[in-house]
Amino acid sequence: QEGTKVPSKREQNTSIVTSDLFHKNLLKSEQKNWNNISPTYKAMTKRIREKLEELHDMYALNSGSPRMRFGQNVYFEENGCIFLAKEDDGVFAVFFSYVICEGNAEILFSVEDLGFSDAFIQRIRISPDQSYMAISLKSENSEEATCIIMKLGNLPVVEKVIPSAFSFEWAANDVLYYTTQKNLKCQNVFMTTFTYQKHTKLVYTEQDARFFVDLYCTKDRRFLTINSNSKTTSEVWLVDCRHPFESPALVQARTAGVIYHIEHRKDQLYILTTYGEPAEYKAILTDNYTHRINLDAYCSGKENWQLVYALEKKTKLVDFEMFSDDCILFLKNAGHLYLNVISFVSHSVQPIKLPTWACEFELESHPEHSTSTCYFQLSSPVHPPKRFAYSFKENNLIEQAVQEVPIITNCHTTRLLAKSKDEALVPITVFHNKNSKELHRKPLLVHVYGAYGIDLNMSFKEEKLMLIEEGWILAYCHVRGGGEQGLSWHRDGCQHNKLKGLHDLRACITLLHQRGFSQPRHTALAAASAGGVLAGALCNTDPALIRALVLQAPFVDVLNTMMKTHLPLTIEEQEEWGNPLEDEKCMKYIKSYCPYQNIKPQCYPSVFITAYENDERVPLTGILQYVQKLRKAALDHASRISKKGNWIPNIILDVQADGSHCDSSWEHSLNE
């Protein structure tokens, strides 16, 4: 502003040095505090580690990595090794053609062979003629991965190494498209070739910082798609795999608020889009993909458009798989998973029920486009992955015939609906031991996320099964802001609706206690990353509802973070949280729920936080300051109230030098 004194360079540098020093002193203080406290839990840690290792050994065989089938060849990865098995060698189990006896499989190469002993394989793509394999390797301590292209043969050799690669797909036998990642952003797409005139060239650059670029191949491998997505809008460019050197063609220019994805089948483009009302996913197709596709044609009823399928209200499209004559949709409604099978031959839609305990699924990687069977795994936090197949010909669901591990029979799954402040019904999924008596006396662990339209992670975890066996109740609150009930469920819980997620969480925990699932003094709340916003907010508004709070790399300083545009994700995240720099109303709204901003002297629950020293997504400084302010508020409250036996909460921070914000290996998660 006019008349404002401009600070000198010297003053700015002094401020930065002071801030760095403050950060280092805070970190040193917390590390010292952790080193003093952690030995207290040594015996408990030892017991838990032994139990988890026992459970992991019992169930690890059942949760092997998916198989990639190319004709008679099946590729798979186990323990850092890439295997190749032949279907006609009799190495397949009777029931599932991708369950392989590893003793008869050939090891192509291992991660250690490539000199990456501390990395794990994140992604595998095989060229159409199986001459090349591209894999991405990622270490625990980095967000970025390295892509290695192997020339397959009697002795596989390294053809090329691409640092900081994110996604990659084969457009032809020797043509690979890939994106690179820098500061958590992917904005450049490159093409590289491996035979004759070897060369690499830039084919696409995204200019808008809110958009993230990734690559995908249609199931029939006819097109490679360049997908540029923000949190609410998308744009797709097509590369014709028959002519991979030609420039990409734009499908539809980005339109604010419209998301779309492309599939292809028998010379027709299928477009999965949110365009039109309601703004949920619907499948449409066009007869002629050679002309520029105009989404407006769908609503104007042009002859070359046809509505194939529209989602029901409050339904989440989890994933879909396109086959030559059928399309299978994995759907979720009020926490229940089910399938809808669309037949392109009979033009019918067949709903298929799945087991009531099913919460997560994983498709077989790269299923053959012409297959008559779709293979997948189902799991829940307390049910190890179990294999299923859906036969299009027989129109039935087949469960794994031979049970490789003990069946989980003593766990009961309950679905509840909590009425929120505005009368919205919020789904809750509850797991508990069938044999447990007096559930109101049992400890309860509540989980929440509620951001970015992402569902709560409900995949199998050994520690969740251990808790069930020890009498705990597990509850998963599918609050607004998440994606469990479709895109509108996310919209109702982001930006100026963020408080609805907090009201939902409060209603869920209150209902659980009313229904006899534990009580406040035996209740803990767990959240990770952006889930820390709602969990931390509840801690400020309703601390009496819970006794303990467990946070992993939590986002607890929303306001200060969203004011710092130099951070890698701030611009991109404005579609989720708003822009407090340009909107004063938005600033006041964020301030009303931001965990850090609303700490006050009161009786807080005990808090345990795990953070990572080099976390690029959630700045450590915000967590350090949050812990310091929270501890001071709890002590201030205790000093004001001198009641006999006054309870002072434990507020503990474990800052780990290793590890990153994203999912980690079994060994790393075991240590945590």
| Helix content, binned percent | 10-25%
How many helical stretches?
Answer: 12
CATH superfamily name of the largest domain? Alpha/Beta hydrolase fold, catalytic domain
**Total number of distinct structural domains:** 4
CATH class of the largest domain: Alpha Beta
Hey, roughly how much beta strand do the residues contain? 25-35%
Look up the CATH topology of the largest domain.
Answer: Rossmann fold
What CATH architecture of the largest domain would you give?
3-Layer(aba) Sandwich
Biggest sheet details: 8 strands, mixed
Name the structural class: alpha+beta
- The end-to-end distance, rounded to whole angstroms, is 49 Å
Which strand order spans the largest sheet, edge to edge or round the barrel?
28-29-31-30-32-33-34-35
Q: Which term fits the overall shape?
A: globular
Instruction: Enumerate the spans where pLDDT stays under 50 for 5 or more consecutive residues.
Output: 1-12, 89-102, 297-303
Radius of gyration: 26 Å
| Number of beta-strand segments | 35
**Mean pLDDT across all residues, rounded?**
86
Map the helices and strands.
Layout: H1 9-37, H2 42-59, E1 68-70, E2 73-78, E3 81-86, E4 106-110, E5 119-126, E6 132-139, E7 145-151, E8 157-172, E9 175-182, E10 185-193, E11 200-205, E12 212-217, E13 223-229, E14 234-240, E15 249-252, E16 260-265, E17 268-273, E18 282-286, H3 296-299, E19 305-310, E20 315-322, E21 326-333, E22 336-343, E23 348-353, E24 360-363, E25 373-380, E26 383-391, E27 396-399, E28 411-419, E29 425-433, E30 444-447, H4 462-469, E31 473-477, H5 487-491, H6 498-514, E32 523-528, H7 531-541, E33 548-552, H8 558-562, H9 570-577, H10 584-593, E34 606-612, H11 620-640, E35 651-656, H12 666-671
Parallel strand pairs: 30-31, 30-32, 32-33, 33-34, 34-35
Antiparallel strand pairs: 1-2, 2-3, 3-4, 5-6, 6-7, 7-8, 8-9, 9-10, 10-11, 12-13, 13-14, 14-15, 16-17, 17-18, 18-19, 20-21, 21-22, 22-23, 24-25, 25-26, 26-27, 28-29, 29-31
